[in-house]
Every structure is written in structure tokens, then in C-alpha cells.
Amino acid sequence: MILIEAGDAGQRGFEAKLLFAAQLAARGHDAVIDERTLPPDFDRGSRYEAAPYLRDLSGAPMHQLVIVGAEAMADTVLGRLRQTGLVPDASVWLIGRFESRQALISAQSKVAYVIGREPQVIDLAVLQPNDLPGANGPVVAVGRPQDGDGAGGTESLVVFLGTETLEDPTVEPTLMALEHLPDLRLTVVVPGRARDHLKALRFGSLRVVGLSDLTPAAFAQLARFAVIYGAEPTGSRIAAMAADVIVSGGIVIDCTKDATLAGSSAPVLRGPQHLAALANYVRHTVVPNRVEILRQTARSPWTEARRVEVLEQLMGLEAPETTRPARAGRILFLPTNGSGLGHARRSTLIAREMQPGAHETVFAAFPSCMPMIRAAGHDCLPLVSKSRVHGADHANDLVNYMRLRRALKEGDRLVFDGGYVFDSIHRTILEKRLEATWIRRGLWQAGQITPAALHREGTFAQVIVPEEAFSELNTDLSFGRHVRKVGPIVGERTGRDAAATRSILRERLGREFGELVVTMLGGGVAADRTAQMQLLSALLERRKDCLHLILIWPGSTVPPALYGWKNTLVCQTRNAPDYAAAADLVVTAAGYNSFHEVLYHGLPAIFVPQMAGFMDDQDRRARAASDRGLAVTVAPEDLLLLEREATAFLDGGKGTELRGALAATNLPGPGNKAAAALLAAEDWR
Amino acid sequence: MRAPLRIAYVLDPRFPGGTSSAVAAELKVAVRFGRVTVHAVESRMFRGRTVAPVLDDAFDDLGIEPVWDAPVISADIVLLHNPAFLKFQTTLPARIVCRHIYVIAHENFKRPGGEEGFDVATTLAQIDRSTLALEKVIAPISRVNRDTVDNWIARRSGFETWSVLPDDWFNICSFSLNPPTAAPADRRGRYSRPGFEKFPPLDAMEQMFSPQAERNLILGSDSLIARGVVRPHWTLMPYRGIELERFYEMVDFLVYYTSPAWREGFGRVLAECMAAGLVVITDPGTASSFGRGAIGVRPEEVDAVVARHVERRELYLRQVQAGQEALASFSAERFARRFDEICARAQRKIAS
């Protein structure tokens, strides 16, 4: 374990040690940061970046300590170091940019006083003279392969814009124009507030990310060309990213007004100050000369001095060899949980169709979905749900980020089924260079899927849209070759016929019944359905030959009063489709899965739509069926209508009528196999 | 009749610690031997500070008006105290013309680990470049200090024109002597400025200020207080939290250790406590400057040493006596005799 400290006790110091810890970690070192040093006002994005390195070090013996930014040792840091539990033969290194020998001696002495032994010193003024402006601490990099190596004629550009640049009214239209150049794949990096503005502009494949949304190393991975605009982005993150790009064999283009980067001794190109000139500059000046530019960059002493291996050797750190055996690639399904289990159910239905291949299929899901996923035979990494008791609203997502980060490695694939791409997912995809698919059904409530919610679509190699059975329900949220539509994802029944199911019920329950009503209104997560269930229970209690099953998922709860009815039985089951298929009447919500199971399995149903704000448009979906005479829709508040319609099914032959209509309807073929085939493809792009 | 010897002191009088006390005591002796001027240099090291009160008082008492930042300093003897005040700059902004320049070291040239205590070469080079003198001498102030000077100069080229004074330029310790307590108890204490160099690691502190003691009074523990360090058997007080006279009444043993990476050049605090009638316990290196006057042991041995001296009162009394006898070798009179030799030597040179 290597403890990274910084001479500066503030945010600047923390950022310096974070950048250095990340570089050491990329080389396999167990670099850690004392969690007590996390600045309380550190922004949200940076907290994700810091999370992998933070440790509770109280009482932990330390064998290696590296202090960066040692040219300015704050007393608070010295006081903390005094209480650091260094083992007697611990190795201690100071890395600083010392303006004089006395400055070096002062730093070395101060640290020696508090730790009681002599630290060794690396003077960056000697090792890395003429550094990039804004550099804070050692600017070192691990060479990494980059995306977009020009294969297929596409160059990937990461463009860093400052607030000042964005004030230019020509910039937004220019970005829109750049987005449509087929040979350039653009990622725009902007300060946080500007990101919120830009992502609402509804770009398509253009990626818009905040400066702290990704690590400098992740930015560098995306950038064959890193283009720096504006006066603002000159901090240590830019310096770290630029070094990473250069060491990784990319090209940095300085388009700042003052040529802040190109003015240093770094092998950086001077590019056009106007964004409108960038595309031509890259295509006609840089790309044709790329080989020579890269040759000179690689030969530059500046580049050599920025390799993290140089510091490793000076400090006698050996990159540990990994002892973990290599595992096969993974395809990880990550369904979110809405009000119910729809995303998870859809994911398991697709996963079921996937043939064993090069990738092992695993799941990551929230606790409510895990029993169903495990019952379907998949390993499942538990994710943490949001909770009001957490200290911050993104606390659960930080933990999920850490779990995903550990569970996935480069070359793995991720399949996300949900509406909003969490930071944890977005970061993991980009940092681990995962190929990713977004499964996103077409129907949402008005205003629920906004341009802002779609701005991370560019992170995914493909978007699979499982369509609704009725075409008017399919809304195209985005366009392009990467959007692939498949038929509705529908669960199959076990094949047991209705008579057999009823026999089993009679045998297990020890009672006779003539008519069977199945209610599937959920466990009260999205809305309270007590009134509807009580009404149905009361209605069916009067029918002597009736069995009323209220089906809920194992672990769900319903109001205790429902257990008082004689004809009503609350039943926890994973096999709701079979019981529903044997029913004379199904009363159900109109979620994607239950809706399509009703249609495709030909069930006589009353839809009672749920309309929580985070759900799809169940009312519209339900009415699409009832308008066609394939089901009945009853609004949740229409209790008297519910009673009338239920009676019509049981006494008026409405169920038989609907079964006939359903049997006569042509529905599009299910898309389970098509979706699985898209995921099984070698190339998702 | 020969003109009086011109003696010029060159220093930054804003130094807050024992060095200023030592120079103040020395000035009172030096004025007996010639016409003394004080040249104050406003160094970068003490930027923003004021003149040390002890020196201010001495200037008033002796009727000396310090001359600040004189471009030329001319004297028969120049005494430049504590050259480390030049460590944060590259030029001494004065021309010094003299027969003999003595650079009184004060700060150790090297730390116990062998690393330089400050940028000695840059500091001495500034003096070297600014000075036209017949003789340039480095004057260590103690045995400990001398070892570091010898060790440094033996390994450096370019300073061959400098010599090292064979006798120590010690701090004058003319304190009034208090008798030891009649009933010594296990009451331990230490005081110092709160700098990190002045304190040993916490585990060593715990050994030397153990629960065995009736009292562990740590004066100047500002950084421990700031870090929230709490031990039920420790009394932590900030620097100058109580008067020293009160401190001497509250403890019977001075237990004084510094960071193992730093050592006192002289150890004036030890001398003050010996004079106050306390038994002084410190590390063997620091103790060596005081002969038998201070007990030099490792931190883990402190409990046993204190217990022995509490149990055997005569041992305690004998140790206090040894400490106060050791101070005799740092008396003003002994310093005057040394100073007289230096002045006589200078005058002989003038005569020849």
C-alpha cells in the first residue's frame, strides 16, 4: 500500500495526489489516499474519481509514503504526517518542484522532523523542467491505447472548451456542424454549468461531458487528438490529460488565445483559435503529417520524462504482477428498477435467448430485482438503491460505481436497460473502455425522456429499442445507425395448460372453485392499490365459486387486511404468467411486460394503469389495447367502473369476447431472439 | 595610544529563539573590549517579524543603535551570528571589510541523519563574496555543533580559505542559580517553541511522559493541541502558556527530546533548567554539550532514571549540583577571557 499525500492541505493538493494515485494505480500499485483528507467542498464528479483510492487509515501501518507538491508543506499536513503509522523501515519520498536547494532542504527537513527519519527527494525542477502551465505535482502518464485510431476513416477528437469560448455565439452552430462530419467523432468537454446547457441542445452522436465527469486518463483514452480551447482549462487536470495523450501516442493541439500549452517545451501543436477552422486544420494539416508529428513527439525528451516508469524507477517501485487469473470476457446486464421489475424481467428474457459464447452473462441489479434474476439462473452483483438516510443523493451511485469498476475489465460488455444513465454506468463504460448497449423501450411519459436524459447516448455503441405491440406507441427518441429496433420482448409461458394449472391450485389450496380471477397490481411500490384490491376482494367474496389470487413477487408486501377475505388469497410467486393464463379475468397494471404478456398470451384483462412520474405512459398503452377492443381500461379512481367491468367479465361473457378478439389480432413477432442476436454480435457498431 | 578595537556584529535581530538571548548576553561582554556596532540585516527569513525583545532591551541597556542594511560594514573584527538567516536569499546586501570575520554557527550544519540542516554552501558563499578579510573563521557553539561543521567542511571544496575556531563559541549562561527542591517527586515537564523539529514522535513522547509520572507538563504543545492529541496523564499548554518561573515550580525534571531528525545547536533551554534547579534528562547527543550536567538516555529509559532520582534524594541533589557546576564553563567571565584572546590576537595582527 502506497499512501499518497500532498504538501498543500487544500483542494489543489488533493487533486494533485488524486492524479498521481491514479497513475500509480494504472500501473498496478495499491495507491491510497487518507479519506479524512477529502475536501468537504469537492465537487460531485471528483468524488467519483477519488472514491477508488480513499481508505480509512486509522491505525493502519504504512510501508510507503509519497508526498507530492512537497515544495509547499502545510503545517496541517505535517501535523497529520506526525500521526501516520509508518513502519520503521518505511520508504518515504518527497516529489516537488523546488525553486532552490534551500527550498528542497526545508521541505525535506520539515518532513524528517515529523516522521523521525530522512525522506528521499525527487526534484521535478531537474527531472521535468519547463512543465505545462497549471501542473500541480508530478505530471506523469501511463501510455494507453486510444480509441478512434483512424480505423474506418474516423478520427476521435476531444475538444476542451472554456466558459469564455462558449460565450462566442458561433461556437454552438460550429459544434452542430462538426457533429455531422463523418470522419470526425467528437467529444466536447466543458465546465459543469456549460455542460447542462449544451446537453439540452439535443446533439446526436456528439458527446458532451463535464471537465470533472471523467478522469484525465479516461479523456486521454478517448482522444486521438486533444484540442484545448479557451483560457480556462489550464489546470492540473488539463496538464495531466495532455501528458497522458502525448505519452499514449496522441496529439495535443493548443488553440488557446495565449498559447499556454504550446508555449511550454511540451510537444504540443499550435492550432487555430477559431473552432470553425478546426476541422480543416485537423483534416488537412495534422492528419497528413501525423506520422512525422508522432515521431517527433515520441523522440521528445519531454515525453520520455513524463512516463510514470521514470518515477517508478527512481523510487524503486516495482509494478506488481497481477496474480489474479485471467477470466473470460463478461457481458453484464444492468437493469434499473422502476416501480416494478420490468427492466430486469426484460433483460432476463433477452439473456435467456443468448447462446453460450465468448462472454459470460452476469447481472448487476438493485435488491428488489435480484431474486428474479437469480431465479432465472444468473449471477447478480447487488447494487445499492438510493435512500433518504444516505448523506448525499449520489452516495448509492458512488458505491455502485466502485462495484461496477471492480466487476468489469477492459473488453467486457455492458447492457443497460433503463431510462437514465447514472454516473456510475457512464464512467465505468468510458474508463473501462467497455462496449455498451442501451436497451430503451420506446414509450415514455411526456417530458420524461428529455434531450438532457439522452445526452449520454453517445457513450453507447448501440441502442436497442424493444418496440411496443402497437405502432402509435413507438416514439423515436433518437436516430441513426446505432438505433436498432426489435419486436416486443415477451415472456413465454411454461407450456402448462389452464386446466392443469387449475388442478394444481385445487390440490395445493385444498378447495374447489369454478372461476379464477388474478390480480397483479404490484406490491404498492409505485402507488397504493389497496382500494382496488379491497374492492375486488369484496366483490369476489360474494361469489361462492370464485378464487381470487392476488399475485405479488416474493418479498413484496400487501396490506394485511387483504388476508381477511375467504375467497381471496395473497400469493407470492415467480410464475405469475401461468396463473394469469388460467384465469377468467386478469386485473393488472399496464407495464411493458405484463401488457405484452396479456396480448401475446391472449388473456382477458382489465388494465388499471399506474402513473407514477418515473414510469412509462401506462394509460396510453392500456388505452391502445382497449380502443382496439382487446382489453378494458379502468382508471385507478374509477372504482365503480372497475366493479361493473369485473362483473361483466365474470357474468356477461366479456372475457370470452376478448379472448376471441385477441386470437384474431395480428401482433408483431416477439423481439427476444433479435435482441439477443444483436448482443451476441462480435461488433456492436 | 592605540585606537579602540572596532567590533561589528552582523545579524538579523528578529530571530525569536535562544540565539537572540545568546547574542544579547554576549554584547554585554563585548562592549568591554572595543567600540561595538550592530549591523542589522533585514533577511528574507524573518520577513514581517519584529526585533527580538531580549535584543531590543540589550541595545537600550548598552546605548547601541543598530544600523539597518548598511551597504558597507567596516571593522577590525566582524562577528556574524547565525549565518542561516541568509538561507532564503542568494546575496548578502553589504560589503564587509575587516581583519577577521567570525561566523558563529548556531544552527547545526548537518542534521542527525547526515542531511544538511540548511543550504550552507549558498549561505557561506554569500558571506565569502561580500567579505574582504585577512581571516575567515567558522565558530561552532558546542561540541554537537562543531561535529556538524567539521563534517560538512571536510566534504566540501571551495571553502578552503575558511578555518574552524578550535574552541567553542559557547552561549553565555549567566543565570541566577536556584536550589533544588527538598522533596523531589515524579513531576516532569518540557518547554520549547511549538515547531515540529522540537518534538519527538508521539510514541517516544508517550514513553518519556508516561502514566507513571505524577505530572507531565508539556509547554509549547500547540501542534499537539491543534491535532486533538489527548492523553489523560498529560497537561498540554501552548507556547508561553505560563511564565517560566511557574513552570520551574511545577516540575522537578526537565525531559527534553527533539525530533530525531534535528538537534539543538547548544541547548539553551537545558542550561536554563539546570540553573532553575531541575534535573535535566535528554538524548545522549544533546547531553554531551553539558558534560555530566545533563543525563543522556533513550526515551524508554526515562521512567527508570526518574524513579531512581525520586527514590534517592541525594542522587537528585547531586545531579542538580552537577548541572549547575557545568554552567560554570558557560559563564560570562569565561567568555570574556576567550574574547580577550580573540581581541588580543587581532591587535597583534594590527601591530605586526
Q: Summarize the main sheet of chain B.
A: 7 strands, parallel
Q: What top-tier CATH class of the largest domain in chain B fits best? A: Alpha Beta
Taking pLDDT < 50 over at least 5 consecutive residues as the criterion, the unreliable ranges of chain A are: none
The shape of chain A is elongated
Mean pLDDT of chain B: 94
What's the shape of chain B?
globular
Oligomer: heterodimer
Query: Stretches of chain B where pLDDT falls below 50 for ≥5 residues?
Result: none
Strand order of the largest sheet of chain B: 3-2-1-4-5-6-7
- Helix fraction of chain B, binned, reads 25-40%
Question: Which fold does the CATH topology of the largest domain in chain B refer to?
Answer: Rossmann fold
Report the CATH architecture of the largest domain in chain B: 3-Layer(aba) Sandwich
Tell me what the structure shows.
The complex is a heterodimer of chains A (685) and B (352). Chain A folds into four domains: 2-127, Rossmann fold; 151-315, Rossmann fold; 329-489 and 672-680, Glycogen Phosphorylase B (Rossmann fold, 3-Layer(aba) Sandwich), CATH 3.40.50.2000; 498-663, Glycogen Phosphorylase B (Rossmann fold, 3-Layer(aba) Sandwich). Chain A has 27 helices and 25 strands. In chain A, strands 15-14-13-16-17-18-19 form a seven-stranded parallel sheet. In chain A, strands 3-2-1-4-5-6 form a six-stranded parallel sheet, sandwiched between helices. In chain A, helix 15 packs across helix 27 (672-680) and helix 21 packs parallel to helix 25 (639-651). The longest helix of chain A is centred in the first third of the chain and has 16 residues, at 11-26. The mean pLDDT of chain A is 87. With 352 residues, chain B is of the alpha/beta class. Chain B is 34% helix and 20% strand. Chain B contains twelve helices and 13 strands. Chain B has helices spanning 18-30, 53-62, 120-130, 143-154, 202-208, 222-226, 244-250, 268-275, 284-287, 302-311, 313-326, 332-351; strands at residues 6-11, 35-40, 67-68, 72-81, 95-104, 131-139, 162-164, 187-191, 215-219, 235-237, 253-256, 279-282, 295-296. In chain B, helix 5 (202-208) links the parallel strand 8 (187-191) and strand 9 (215-219).
